[in-house]
Design a protein that fits this description.
By secondary structure, the chain is an all-alpha fold. Helices cover 78% and strands 0% of the residues. It is elongated and about 40 Å long. GO terms for molecular function: DNA binding; sigma factor activity. This is DNA-directed RNA polymerase specialized sigma subunit, sigma24.
């Protein structure tokens, strides 16, 4: 449930792009075509979510 809370802090676009990348294994280019955006926009979304997860786990380790 805590991991879902991290995803809940993301925009819908970030969440969708991240899940397509991380769970479905699509490439940045494939996601861009599906979502109607550039590879750069997909990369930025995936990185934003990845950083949120990194912060989440770093905070857990420091507790």
């Amino acid at each position: 449930h805590e991991l879902m809370a991290v995803l809940d802090t993301c925009t819908e676009a970030q969440r969708r792009r991240f899940l397509l990348y991380a769970l479905d294994g699509l490439s940045l280019a494939e996601i861009g075509v599906l979502c109607g955006c550039s590879k750069v926009a997909v990369y930025q979304s995936v990185e934003a979510v990845r950083k949120k997860f990194i912060n989440f786990f770093e905070n857990r380790l420091n507790e």
